[in-house]
Amino acid sequence: MPTTTKEYLAKVRDRTGFSDYRISQEYKINQSNLSKYSSGKAALSETHAWLFADILGLNPAEVVANTKLEHAKLNNNKLKSIFWEEQLEKLSNGYEPIKIAIAQINPIVGDISNNAKTIIESSIKSHKLGSHLVVFPELSLVGYPPEDLLLREGFITQIETAVEDIRSQIPQNCSVIFGAPSTDSDNLYNSAYLIQDGRVRIYHKQKLPNYGVFDEKRYFSTGDSAFVFECQQQRIGVVICEDSWSPEPIKITANQGVSTIISINASPYQIGKHSERINTIKKRVMENNVNFVYVNCVGGQDELVFDGGSFAMDKSGEIYHQLPFFEEMISDLSEKTNTTDINESIEKTIYDGLVLATKDYVHKNNVFNGALIGLSGGIDSALTLAIAADALGNDNVQAVMMPYEYTSNMSIEDAKLQADNLNVDYHNISINPMVDSFNLQLSTIFADTKADTTEENLQARVRGTLLMAISNKSGKILLTTGNKSEMAVGYATLYGDMSGGFAPLKDISKTLVYRLARYRNSLSLVIPQRVIDREPSAELAPNQVDSDSLPPYDKLDEILGLFVEKKKSVKQITEQGFDKETVVRVSQLVLNNEYKRRQSAPGPKISKNAFGKERRYPMTSKFKP
Fold first, then answer.
1. CA-CA distance, 589 to 489, in Å (whole number)?
2. What is the reported pTM?
3. 425 φ, ψ to 5°?
4. What is the pLDDT of residues 44-65, one digit of tens each?
5. DSSP assignment of 463-499, as one string?
6. Per-residue pLDDT tens for 374-393?
7. Which residue numbers are catalytic?
8. What is the Cα–Cα distance from 252 to 316, expressed in whole angstroms?
């Protein structure tokens, strides 16, 4: 569709921020002529067409042809109208195919100025490489999820300032899409911003997720209309994340004659999620006969980790461009990529996610200079140590072994070997005198009682105290080493082995811990094989093993998967062949230990139902499952 003089003038106003009077003064345009341009009574003169093209960074031939066509129409000159329409058609046919860059970036929540800087610099770089359109993820200007920061007036003010910075600094002839909140009267929206030709247009997300880790309805109002724009003679639609999971927003957008739909996303990782995305998008593509571009963010954010995995799919439902998981990258869609990596092993994907989540939690908070791990000689602390070293570098990791009289020589030897294999700073501190001192001071109060888990927990709490002291002194974050199976049934000590600021294995079942340990050893041998082979034990009492008080972990994890993640009842689980008494005991342990989990360190979610913000069970309850 031809662009009119009024539209060119509006673009100049938006680009310069000038009033008509200021434009006439700055560019020496007669005020009378400018008034005619503004009213639509006159088309641009050829001189002014060249001037406007220069201001807007447009092809002068296109601007001249549009204004010549407008002039012919104003004068009812049909022959000249036909001529200039033909010229515009020739110019249109001469457009090079659209070149889209997708930016799989790792924004930091609340770091608006630096996120804006990333958007600006990435756009400039992509434009220099020939991109016409650069696409960034959902809420990439503020990071996802911003949570109650959205309720602060100053936060919204900073967003508005940053949007203007982006508008004024990106190349004029480069279109950019990014996500950020927007306001309209009393409403706040999760929006996609399009900056094109110096103008800002905004789309509001129509489907707001309010389940699992998402609570967007707490903050945002819903949009109610589709969004379509043109770039390089291509009609393109824009949606945001959850919009794609419902047929209607895609259908309405596709019905407006688009060739491609772009979805900007902040979709966190969980096992099997990428396959779900592909299957859902393929369904939308086949329903509407459109190309589809899916842009996701990457990075750790508290209990979430975003895997990226951005991709482009053609109308036949085939992926022709696939970005890697858990890596920042800006990629040109005109270049085909290897799509086989989407079939990488679950163990690799999970391990990479845990490493990135740990790395970003430490680096983004910018208050810790490394990580501290209490080694036991067992598999959980061994895997946590490997994750920490891979995430932060071995020079920034410290390991401490704290044996007591029940600690086996094997555990002491294996802990030292783990630290040596990873070349981390290692210390051995005996806790015998400290535990003995506690027991002595408590002996009068504990007189005439039998030793039980109280004395066992004392050992764990002495270790927790030592580790927190070292953490305070060194500035390193203490990483908790407990796994999901233990946290589920309360097999952990408050203020003991639960001490710490981040728990990399919080959503990793015990059986999955073994799988991840074997995967990490396939890269390089860092965990001694006998740590993997030996029967697990907390070593808090003579000859103690975990199976003394828990079912075997393969059975326990099956029951927990059904009860916690699939929310099955005792009856339903028993019907699958499990012993009823065991199922009743395990389910009650899960419910009784909610108070412990509420006090546990955060850790990355990788399952469909993690212990954290998405699981909101009461601590006080008489529910019988």
1. 5
2. 0.85
3. -65, 130
4. 888 898 888 878 767 778 888 8
5. HHHHHHHHHHHHTPEEBP---HHHHHHT-S-TTTTT-
6. 999 999 999 999 999 999 99
7. 138, 205, 241
8. 20
